[in-house]
């Protein structure tokens, strides 16, 4: 690094002046003044942080760091759902940095895991995670959570911050709406508690269970010609909501419900499965996750007389590599599941995404929400860019810049609300409640365990056309 000794320089300058002819003294002084002016100008202009080490090795202008948080279940029983989603977020952040997406800024991922002592997603852990992320002023937005029950705990905290929370997979209707009335209306409304500020700060790219439940019912009734169902849910917000919405549309189509049960995760479903076998349903519909009963129920069906070949259906919580690997070797009846959104293979952007994803994480790392996590992060990145370039918002200077965080995060929230995004999972914009405009639901059955996450795409249903 260039340095100079002003006292020594003054002595040399005086000696120089005494020895120079008068005609050249003025020119020398003018030249010296110009040098000093130029040196001073080199340090003027846009504020920057010099990273020189003081050892004469020079320095570079340091870019500003903006952080993206992720809050997902990435270990233990939920790893096959949450880890692929986190990988998608990581890929989006990497691509943003590699492409210099926002000149003068770099992005960093701060990843949190909401799996608790029970080995599955834990709302209490999730709430603490978002509190910690909010405490870092450089975190501009958060991708997550995976589970609606965790979202119920997190949304009030992120709303009060405020900070954008965007989920690739939450489908429970009541997180954003007061319909359907049987689930979210009147005294069942959760919006006052979820939005203490009265403003929308929570968004999701997954369409709601009102549509996912309807799509599952349509596929079972019209495509498979099933007419009777037994419905089980896992007692959690997501599972209960999906089961209720399926039941409503199933009955609207003319299907019959032979019985229903709400059962918290357990090691044995033998009693309820024995009862179900006596009713001989065309299929069992399960509202819940692979880790909260999906895998165990389907495994134990195989050993219950009368259910060994009974079809099993579930929503996106059961579309995991873990369930596919646990169930396919057993044989038995077919398994169907869904994802709220366009299947990535049907998207024009899919090849580019899958090539990049498999190069980074391997083909076996693909999960139901790899693309969803990626798209949520890309939406946040697009919103951050808009906040900086269009709204001239100033990013926090460091992790303790709370005053800077407040205004910057609000600018990001406003940009997310107005985003128009075309991604791997289709086109997304958000209505006044934070719900996506994308109402497609994709259907699957177990396929080749060595391909992707082990699920074979069947078809997609545009639920906006359903009555």
UniProtKB/TrEMBL annotation:
<keyword id="KW-0472">Membrane</keyword>
<dbReference type="InterPro" id="IPR028082">
    <property type="entry name" value="Peripla_BP_I"/>
</dbReference>
<dbReference type="Pfam" id="PF13458">
    <property type="entry name" value="Peripla_BP_6"/>
</dbReference>
<keyword id="KW-0812">Transmembrane</keyword>
<protein>
    <submittedName>
        <fullName>Branched chain amino acid ABC transporter substrate-binding protein</fullName>
    </submittedName>
</protein>
<keyword id="KW-1133">Transmembrane helix</keyword>
<dbReference type="InterPro" id="IPR028081">
    <property type="entry name" value="Leu-bd"/>
</dbReference>
<feature type="transmembrane region" description="Helical">
    <location>
        <begin position="25"/>
        <end position="46"/>
    </location>
</feature>
<feature type="domain" description="Leucine-binding protein">
    <location>
        <begin position="65"/>
        <end position="443"/>
    </location>
</feature>
<keyword id="KW-0732">Signal</keyword>
<comment type="similarity">
    <text>Belongs to the leucine-binding protein family.</text>
</comment>
